[in-house]
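Appendix B: complex inputs.
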Amino acid sequence: MSELTTYQHHYEAFGLNILSDMLLPELPVHAGTDLSPLAVHIAASNHEDWPPLVANEHSTPSLQMALGDWRLELEGIGWFRAYAGETLSYERWDDSVSDRDLRTFLVTSGLAALLIQRGALVLQGTTVVRDGQAVMLLGAPASGKSTLACCLQQEGWKLLSSELSVINEQGLVLPGLQQLKLWHDSAASLGLNWAQMPLVRRGLKRYALLPPEAEVSSQAAPLEMIYIISRRNNRKDAQESEIQTRRLESQAVALLRLRNNAYQPRVYRAMDQEANLFLQVSALARRVPIYSLQLSDGVKPMQQALEKVDLLAPSSLEAKPTVELDASAEAQEEAR
Amino acid sequence: MSTQDGGYWYLASYPKSGNTWCRVFITELQRLAGEETPEELNLNQDVETGAIASSRLWLDDQLGINSCDLSFAELDPLRGGAGESAWLFAEGERFHKVHDAFQSLDSRGRPVVSTTGCLGVVYILRHPEDVAVSLSHFFSWPLPQCVNFLLDPSAALVPSERHGGHQVRQHMGRWDQHVRSWVDQQQLPVLVMRYEDMLMKGPETFLALAQFLRLPDAPSLVNQALLNTSIESLQKLEDQVGGFAEKPKGAERFFRSGRSGEGAQQLTLEQRRRLAEGLPAVMRRFDYEDVDKA
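Resulting structure:
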């Protein structure tokens, strides 16, 4: 029996050939049958058959880790294991757990752990592309990346990867997750027909925007610009519909901000990849301009602002008189 | 593990009950007892304002996932286990604000905060009539809504499931349920402080606090810290920093009046009766006279 028969689904994401026994609509489908060179496997497995693990000091009750072995236990949902950068295993907690529940964590935390095991640079960011040029939006969950990416689609940008983005050694962002997760309020404000959209998971008021409704690109693209997103914080001098950016001139600050936006830094430590991460983000900080970007609260002001600005020409939206203030706030943030 | 040796403390309270005052006092006491004492306390730089136990960043790091992908009901049973490795607590601040009740409706009887490595909890409570008035100023809510909130068994902060946020839902429940959840739990040593005693019997109440938290407890230091954190001093410090970081957008200032007894003046008789009838046992237990006996 060939691999393709056992693993019915074949994807190409984050530079990997992914063979899976579960349908993963968040990932771009692999067109051919070529399995070389980087095939990884996603398959159901009985977690009781997994060998005992001597967890290292970076582990937590949910996350048990040793070099090359990452295990996540989510009570009520399932068990997950990424091993040696090659296999991703899962077991559902009970029959009430849907495939959608499982794949929510498989394609995010699970694939990210596997990529980190392989030494990849994985950042918590959503990447959009236009005219073959990629712009990455970095920020913590709930910082507004997906809402901004959705607004940008209306300006002609396409989604390359959401939630996590992988940059290869050539500076290309690789196609990854092609699903935007939007909270109810964002979906409603964006004028989307949320009642017809699939839920991210049952019980959540978050909706999945997938192709064809989401405009996506499956071509790796050179990273031209990185924006680190924050929400505007009661700034009296800013107009409601303004987006403000400021270039992080200091390499040291840029490097720290990138490192702080690594996807699951704890996993880098546990997989002994922290030094590698440091080298990779150092190179990235030298190569790609990095800007902080303050978003307006609310979707409408964000849409209005985006009509006037070009993310590939950040000088058009740089903040002017508040640099000193921002620099001081940034220094405090780094100090924390 | 050395991180466990240091340990950490919770400062737990229903919102608007004196938690911030308590944290500012602790910071000031440590500042006064320090070898290098800066000239004056800076509210926005020196006082740790985060609520780490309900922080998404903290939970995401501990759980290894994006917590936005879990419902609040799924998250609550996991939250207490999230901090068991405790190193972040130990590397960060030692005193942690908590507004959650000790357990939530969804936490399956488990605490929603980590208890591993925790040395104890200071539970601060305040007359619910005064909490209602303070909530009204803080949230810009009408008083009847605040009374309903105090009596609501499902009351919570960040209750919306329709948008993300940097904090997860903090379930409080009815005011008396909140008090009992902390005061009667058996897993952590607890010091109960009434806001009214912090005001009226400051020196002895704060001395007991310093001793419980194993902080410097020379009466002269405690009294000086108390003087430096009086409501008048805090208002002055708030003006100096142009607004305390924890002040919500709609509120004029964070440190507003600090007095007790405003509820009796501003609530209607009917509102006061509703609180007295809805929360009788715990109000009696902590000597909060109800409207018909006052």
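The longest strand of chain B covers residues 118-125.
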